[in-house]
Each structure stands twice: as structure tokens, then as C-alpha cells.
Amino acid sequence: MATRPGKHTQKKRSTEKNLKPLVTLKKVHNFYISSTVICHTRYIMSQEKILPIFAIIVLIIGVAASVFVYATETQNASETTIIITINGNSYTIPQLMTSGTYKTISTDDGEKAGVALDELIIRSGVECPSCHDYTIKAKDMYQQTITWENVQQGIFTDDARVYFPNLAHTFWVNDVRTIEVV
Amino acid sequence: MKLVAGIFVFGSLWGFSEVIIGPRLDDAGFPSGILMTGIFALFFLVISRMIYKQPGMQLGIGLVAGTLRLFNSFGGCHVCSAIAIMAEGALFELIWYQIKDDKHLNNLTLQGSIGIATAYCVYVGGYTITQVITPISYGQFVIENIITYLPQILASGLLAALIGCITVPFTIAARKLPFKLKDPFYYPTTMGVSTLCWSFVIISWYVTIA
């Protein structure tokens, strides 16, 4: 014969039934999923805003730089005869092409012919040429600084360009306008 | 292993296009650097990210493409271009470090925006880095030289950005085409394409110096 549960036991059971845990496993799981979804949505939302803003900033920088470059080049475009300034002295290209020994150098882009660059610098009146470095500046503001050893191997061509056999193309300045003694 | 094969095939294709198509564009009077970055580099980098969904891979692709560029037998500065290509791969990784696939780029605005941002930053960054590292490698770096020329570099990136705005959405759309390389053909195809690219460039280089 089964024993009937006592009054005390019944009360205990009903208390257990009424006492629901504050956070069930299901709720924890749901909370985890919902927080993940919220974070993910926020991430996508932030990306949706940030990417176009970043692209607009990039375009503004590009346009501003283009306007600046265009304004500078318009100022320089007014030149009728190309003047090359070496050590503060001005020369035309025909003058320079008859001022030094014509030589051919071998580069990784084939053979290049022009006037010896070191002779042009010596003729411009630089005292102690080997004591200085030289900054070659182009029409478009590009510039590179080279040593006297580099200058001795370089040539200046009739299209206002300098070539060096043992230097990277980075140092081959186009549209040369100025050679400064540093 | 699949990833390594992927790095080799995409790096080889990018390097091959830099070696073969780049100088041709240059000779024809086109801005080859901008076109190569805006179209070819961006296409190979984005499509590989979409296929493999593996951050870090594009750095490897840049290294392979840059190494192949060193064997270039056709015109151009080898070292500075190789440095620029490797830098472009690294910069792509920085910009796309949180983007693994096209799930986050689900509309044309986002695709165009990331195209603009990536093409501009990759081109301008690669150009600037090569203009810094090349003189440093010759012991002749002068910071004034790069600062003076910076407006030109920033301006030249604008065209690359506009091209990138088209390339990235196009690449993401191309990824959705129903084309998949089946497993048995994966390694033979990737290795075959990579070998073909390298062989062509090295043989051309050997013929040129011989």
C-alpha cells in the first residue's frame, strides 16, 4: 500500500514548482543569440555608414590634390622655351646639348644617348663637385637627390630627361627643370 | 594546401599581367600603373578573397606577383614595381581585414565604396612606399623629395579610385557565376596555370639577356 505523502512533502513540492529559476538555459541561449545578432547588425550598419563616408573622403582628397596639381601645372605651362636651371644658371636645351661630351650608356631599358651630366654641372661653376649631392627637379614637382658618383655616370638627353645606368628608374627624372646643388 | 595553390595561381596571374600587359599599356601611352592596380590587381585580390574567404592570403598573392615582376624581361623598373606590387598586397589586407566575403557588401553602394577606397589607398600607398623604399635601398632617401611630390601621387590615385568603383562590383558579380573547379582538376589546373606564367616570363627574360 502506497503511503500518502505528508503535508510537509506536498508543500515542498508546490514551493519547488513556484520557484522558477531566474535565468533558464533557454533564456541564456536566446540572450546569446540575440546579443550576437544585435552586435552583427550593428557591425553591418556601422560598415554601411563608414564605407561610403570613407569613399567620399578619399574622393575629396583626390579631387583637391588634382585641383592643386592642375593649378600648379597651369602656371608652369606658360613657358614658351624650356629653361633648365643648373646651380642657379639658366640654359636652354640646345645650349646644354652642345656643352658636354655626347655619350651612350647601357641601361636595363636599352641604350640611351645624351650629354654627360657631370660636365654640365662642372660648367655651371660648382666648386668641388664631389663635395655635394644634387637634387634634380622636374616640371611636375617630382624630384630626386643623387650623389656625385651617380652624376658621373648619368646623361642628360634632348627631351630634358636624365638617365643613370646603375640606379632604379625612380631616379630617372623626366621633364627636368632644375638641378640644385645640395 | 589548396590555399597555397590558390596563392600561387592568383599571384602568378597578377604578376604575369603586370609583366606582359603593363609595359604594352605604357608603350601605348596609357597610365599603366593606374590601370594595372585599378583593374587587374583589384580583380585578382577581390576574387581570391571572395573564393577562399581567407584573410592573409592576398599578402601572399602580392609577394608571388612581386617576385614574378622581378623576372620581368620587358622594359620598366623591376625593383620599384616589385616593391609596389608587394606593398599593394599588404595594403589590401589592411583595408579588407574584416571583410571575408560578399555578405557584408550586399548592395552596389557598399561595393562601389569599398572599390573606391581600396583602389585609391592601394595605388597611392604602393606608389608612396616604392618612392620611399627604393631611395632608401640606394642610401639616398631625402624626405623632402617625397613630400614635394605627394600632391601628384594623391591626384593620380583619383583615376584608380574611379576604376575601382567599377572593378569591385564587377568582380563580386563575376564571383556569382555558376563556375566551380572540381576537386580532381583543382591542383592540375592551378599548378599548370602557375607554371605556364612563370615559364613564359623566365624564358622571355633568358632570351632577352642571352
Helix/strand class of chain B: mainly alpha
The number of domains of chain B is 1
Radius of gyration of chain B: 17 Å
Largest sheet of chain A: 5 strands, mixed
Distance, first to last CA of chain B: 36 Å
| Coarse shape of chain A | elongated
State the domain count of chain A.
Answer: 2
CATH topology of chain B: Arp2/3 complex 21 kDa subunit ARPC3
**Main beta sheet of chain B: strand number and arrangement?**
none
Question: What labels would you give this structure?
Answer:
heterodimer, A: 182 residues, alpha+beta, Sulfite Oxidase, Chain A, domain 2, 5-stranded mixed β-sheet, 4-stranded antiparallel β-sheet, 5 helices, 45% helix, 22% strand, elongated, B: 210 residues, mainly alpha, Arp2/3 complex 21 kDa subunit ARPC3, 7 helices, 80% helix
Question: What do you see in this structure?
Answer:
By secondary structure, chain A is α+β, with helices and mostly antiparallel strands. In chain A, 45% of the residues lie in helices and 22% in strands. Chain A folds into two domains: 23-76; 83-181, Oxidoreductase, molybdopterin-binding domain (Sulfite Oxidase, Chain A, domain 2, Alpha-Beta Complex). The mean pLDDT of chain A is 81. Chain B is mainly alpha-helical and 210 residues long. Chain B contains seven helices and no strands. In chain B, 46% of the residues are buried. In chain B, helix 1 packs antiparallel against helix 2 (32-52), helix 1 packs across helix 7 and helix 4 packs across helix 5 (108-137). Chain B is 80% helix and 0% strand. The model of chain B has no long low-confidence stretch (mean pLDDT 88). The A-B interface holds A 44, 47-48, 51-52, 54-55, 58-59, 61-66, 68-69, 72, 108-109, 133, 135, 140-147, 150, 167-171 and B 75-80, 98, 104, 109-110, 112-114, 116-117, 120-121, 130-131, 134-135, 137-138, 140, 142, 144-145, 148-149, 151-152, 154-155, 157-158, 161, 165.
